[in-house]
Structures are given as C-alpha cells and as structure tokens.
C-alpha cells in the first residue's frame, strides 16, 4: 500500500524524494570509498566502489557470468510459473469454497509462516544437486504466497455486489466475469507480486547453498575465493533485475486497476 | 385525522382506489420469511397481505428490524418467502427478474471497476443487449438525471447523491413493471436527500410503474405514497395501512397541506406507541 502512495505523490514531491534518496546513496558510496582509501577497512573483504564498477563493466564480456545469468533467470521463471499456476488453482478453489477453505487454510498458513529455507535440504535429498532442486524448492515457496493472496483476493468480493448481480439477473459466468474476478484483481496482483519476489529469493538461495550453477552459486564462489568486487557486482546485477521487475509490475497493475485511483 | 387521511385497518377490504383501477397487479399473499440462525429459527416477517394496483406508489415504514427490507427482497425474488407467495399479474415471482422488478439499494451498489455508463448499462449487459445499444440507452438515461458529463467517470469520483441517481436509472434501464426502492436516500445528508427526493419524484412518479419505497423518513413516506404501510417488529407484521388521497405528482407545497400534516402526525403517534421496537426518530 505504501508503495502505491509514493508512486501517486505529486511530481515536485516525487522529485524531492528522489533527490533525498540519491543523496543517501552517493554519501554511502563516498564513505565507502573514503574508508577504503584511508585504510579503515580492508579492500580484500569489502572491495571499493571503483573496483565493483570495473567488475560490473567486465561482466559484459564474461561468458561465465552471462551464462549464469541466463540459468538463473530461466530457473526463476520456471519456478514462478509452476508455483503460480498451482497457487492460482488451489487459491481460487479454496477462496470459493467455505468448507475447503476451513479444511486447508490452517496448514497452508502454518507452512507460510515457517521459514522455507528449512526445507531446502529435503529438496536436495529428493532431487540431488541439480537445477530441479532449485525449481522444486522455488515453486514450493511461490505456491504458498500465491495461494494465500488469491484466497485473500476472492474474499474481497463484497456481498452487496453479489446481491446486485443476482438482482439484475446475472448468470453465474457473468457474476464471475463482472463481479468476482474484478473484485479479486488486487489480490491477484498481490499474489503475482509475492510469487515473483519469492521465486527470485528462493532460487538465489538454492543456488547459493547448493552448487548447481547460476548467479547464486557464482556469488558463493566469488566470495569464498575473495573476489569481493565481483561478488558485490553480482548483487548489484540481481538488485537491478529485481527493481526492473517491480517497476514493470506496478505499471501493469496500475493500468489494470485504474478504477481504484480515487479510492 | 377526520376524513382527509383515512386509516384503514390491516386486512381491510381492497381500497376504493384499487377497485377504481381494476384490481391488484401485484399481490402479496400471506408472505412470511424465517431465517435460520445459530440460535434457531428467527421470524423476520410473520405474515403480510397486500394488494398493489398498477401505477400505485406504496411507502413502507417501520422500526429497525421490522422486516421491511426482507419483505422488499421477497417481492423482488431475492429472498424466497418461507410462507405465502408474491404474484405479479397472476404469475408467482420466484427468482429475481429485473424486467419485472428492479432494485435500487441503499448502498447504491455501483461496481467500482465499471464506469458510470457501464454501471447503468449493467442489467442490459446481463440481458445480452449489444454494447452499442445498451450504451446508447444508458447515455439517454444519464441525461435525464443530469449525469451525462460523468458517463466515463468511475463511481468513486461521484458524490453519494450522484451515485444514487445512477443507481436509479440503472433500475429504470430495465424498464421494469415494479421499482423497489430500499431506503434509497438513507445514506445521504439531509440537503441532498431533499433535493434528490424532489428530482426523483418527478422522474419516477410519471413512469406509471408500481413503486415500493422503504424509508425511515415519515416525510418521504407521506409525500410520495398513495398508501403508507406501517410495519411493526418482533416479528415483522403490518400494523396499519394509511391512504394519502392527494393526487400525484405532488408539489413541495403538499407538505404544507392539512392532509400531509395530519397523516404525518398520525404516523408519528403510531411509531411513538410502538413498543415492539425502538421509537422512530421524528426525522
């Protein structure tokens, strides 16, 4: 919700907020560079802004990094799609059926609040040190977030809107199309959003801890071999991907739920 | 009370006006509604008998919980009666049928994700009327309530009064035989309420439709109604049916006549003595 409000703020306010944000980032970079130059910290462990920048530039010609990037993005997408489809189906069914919701929501909510990383070793046992481990673990994690948000979205359908549809002679299909679906759109977008962020984090986590290739594994390799500049540069790459996804998401969401603009 | 505003006892012979207009078009025959709750069966409406003639305007008043909304929902087919039945021109009303009886709800119930135009056209869309035709009809109707400039606005951008005008023409778009108004002005402030009331009086009372209005306002009930049905609570029943003989449409001046003042005073006394439920506030 906060994110929306910031994006809707008037433009002078937005410019000022952006400026303040930049000041903090620039200040942090200066302190970091200064601390390294003055010898307060060891560049072997924290690198320096200049080195990280050079490492970043080097990535564009680095076949190892580029192929790891492709592997990671592909794995994230596969896990996201599997987990989201499963979560959508199960979430819609649970959302529409009182009984099934009462039966299955407690265990789902229980697993949702358990740290999913606990289960990673179990996935390794089942799938071995392969990309399938990351995909299965990612889809498993994504499923819970999508499912819970879809159920929440279907709950947003208001009784008086359903009554209206009945009073005006809507068929079941019309009721779903014109009332249930639009009312659950915010939950649907929240579901996709949480699904995507958890797909990214769970895949990277799996790649960090299980040597199956991809950016996560590469970060692990770079940091254990003290190539701190490259490790940090990789985290920058991952952040940029995450921010780009976020921006794409909020634009799509705003376009499809424009009626909420004044609510 | 003498002469001008006559009170007829509940279950009286069909009124003179009804027989003049050739009998009832809408017949509410021994309608009762029970709800089953966790604590057992709760009777919302015990038994209501009412004959309503074509073109008649009936106001229903009563304390909270007297089942007046439930009764209205039964008339429109939204809540099936537990006992008795509702007949329109000899046909039993079962399911909601917006061509026959269309609702205007207290909370407007405009869909926030549809524009005002598409909200007005909603019933026509459910009916399968083509996009061009239903939009043209909706546009014409919006013009009658001076909302044409807001056709492409979303409900959230409209004031309460504007939303309710849109909800009224959404019901009119179905060209129903019966218009069911469930406290349509209840959520509005006093000023908007009066203004909208006068505007709607002109629009609605010239349609020739049966109009049934649920209201908390004695003024509204008397100003609009050919008859005022007074309901009592625990369980819901009809206490009295009162005729207001002044011809419609009525001008604002009608509120200054003896008939209006007498009728209103009588209703006030009735509700004051209503020990079944909480007394109605004067306004």
Account of the protein in words:
Chain A: Belongs to the binding-protein-dependent transport system permease family. Chain A: Its main location: membrane. Chain A: It is found in: Cell membrane. The complex is a heterodimer of chains A (263) and B (283). Chain A has two domains: 1-41; 48-262, MetI-like fold, CATH 1.10.3720. In chain A, helix 10 packs antiparallel against helix 12. Chain A contains twelve helices and no strands. The two termini of chain A are 12 Å apart. By secondary structure, chain A is mainly α. Chain B has 283 residues and is an alpha/beta fold. Chain B has two domains: 1-100 and 179-185 and 207-283, P-loop containing nucleotide triphosphate hydrolases (Rossmann fold, 3-Layer(aba) Sandwich); 106-175. Chain B contains nine helices and eleven strands. In chain B, helix 8 packs across helix 9. The longest helix of chain B is centred in the C-terminal third of the chain and has 16 residues, at 190-205. The chains are: A mainly alpha (263), B alpha/beta (283). The A-B interface holds A 160-161, 163-171, 174, 178-179, 182-183, 185, 257, 259-263 and B 76, 78, 96-99, 102-103, 105, 107, 109, 111-114, 122-123, 125-127, 154, 156-157, 170, 174.
